[in-house]
Design goal:
single chain; 270 residues; five-stranded antiparallel β-sheet; Mannan chain length control protein LmeA; DUF2993
Length: 270
C-alpha cells in the first residue's frame, strides 16, 4: 500500500510538472505570436504596404529574448507589393542579432534597430517579368547542372548563379511564334545599382529546353527580345545588391550588410 501511495504521488508530481511546462510553452508561444502580429501590422503601416506582411521572430524560448531586448533572428516577407516597372514583386528581409535597446519587445514604429547582419531581397516571379519582356508564357530556370537548395547562395535564399539562366518563352516581338529557350546572364548595372541587366548569350536546344531551333535570319531578333534592363529595383532597407540569380521560376536580387541601424519604414524603398 505504501509503495502504491509513493507511485501515485510521484506520478502526480510528474503530471503537475508536465502541465506547468506545457502551460509555460503555451504562454511563450502565444506571446511570440502576439509580437509577430503587432510587428506585421506596424510594418504594413509605416512602410505603406497593401496588406500585412509575413513576420517570423525565430526565438525559442521567446520571452527570455524579449526580456533581454535581443532577438536572434527576424524575417519579414511582403508579397505582391506594387513595384516599379514589373508591377508586383516580393520584398524580403532576414535580420540576425537584433538589438532592441532603443525599441520595446513589440518594436515601436519609429524605433532604431541595430542589426548585426541584414539580408535583403527583391523577388520577381516569371509572370510579371514576362509581362515586362512582352512574353505571357515566360519561364525561368536555374542554369543547367545547378541545384537550388537552401544551403547555397550568398544568403539563406539559396539562389542559383547569375550566368546561363534558362529563359523560355515566345518572343513575338521578334516575329517568332514558337517557344524558344535562351541562355541569359544577369548582372547589376555598373553605373546604377538599382538596375538589373539581362544579357542573352545564345539559343538553347536539347533536354530541359523548348528544343526549338531558330533560323539564322531570326537569331539576332530572338536574342534581342530577351535583352533588357530593369531599373528601380531598390532592396528593402536600402541594402546594396550584390547577387542575382534564380530560384524556382523567380528572379532574385539580394544583398547583405553588417552592423547597420535601420527603421521599419525603410523596409520599402520608394
Amino acid at each position: 500500500m505504501r509503495v502504491r501511495k509513493v507511485l501515485i504521488g510521484a506520478t502526480a508530481a510528474v503530471v503537475a510538472v508536465a502541465v506547468v511546462a506545457a502551460g509555460a510553452v503555451g504562454v511563450d508561444y502565444g506571446t511570440s505570436i502576439y509580437a509577430e502580429y503587432r510587428l506585421s501590422t506596424t510594418v504594413r503601416k509605416v512602410a505603406k504596404l497593401g496588406s500585412d506582411p509575413f513576420v517570423a521572430i525565430l526565438a525559442f524560448p521567446f520571452i527570455p529574448q524579449a526580456m533581454h531586448r535581443h532577438y536572434n533572428e527576424l524575417e519579414i516577407k511582403a508579397n505582391a507589393v506594387d513595384h516599379a516597372m514589373t508591377g508586383k514583386a516580393t520584398l524580403e528581409a532576414t535580420m540576425h542579432s537584433i538589438d532592441l535597446t532603443y525599441a520595446s519587445w513589440l518594436i515601436r514604429p519609429d524605433a532604431k534597430l541595430p542589426v548585426g547582419e541584414l539580408e535583403s531581397r527583391i523577388i520577381i516571379d516569371s509572370m510579371h517579368l514576362g509581362r515586362y519582356l512582352g512574353m505571357s508564357d515566360l519561364m525561368v530556370d536555374a542554369p543547367p547542372r545547378e541545384t537550388n537548395d537552401a544551403t547555397g547562395g550568398t544568403t539563406e535564399s539559396g539562389i542559383s548563379g547569375s550566368h546561363g539562366l534558362v529563359f523560355t518563352g515566345t518572343p513575338k516581338s521578334a516575329g517568332f511564334d514558337h517557344r524558344v529557350s535562351v541562355s541569359v546572364d544577369l548582372s547589376i548595372a555598373p553605373d546604377d545599382q538599382a538596375t538589373l541587366v539581362f544579357t542573352p548569350t545564345g539559343v538553347l536546344t536539347g533536354p530541359d529546353t523548348a528544343n526549338q531551333p531558330v533560323p539564322d535570319d531570326k537569331r539576332e531578333a530572338v536574342l534581342h527580345a530577351f535583352s533588357t534592363t530593369l531599373p528601380g529595383q531598390r532592396l528593402p532597407f536600402g541594402v546594396a545588391p550584390q547577387t542575382v540569380g534564380a530560384r524556382g521560376s523567380d528572379v532574385i536580387i539580394e544583398g547583405i550588410s553588417y552592423s547597420v541601424t535601420i527603421t521599419l519604414e525603410e523596409f520599402r524603398q520608394s
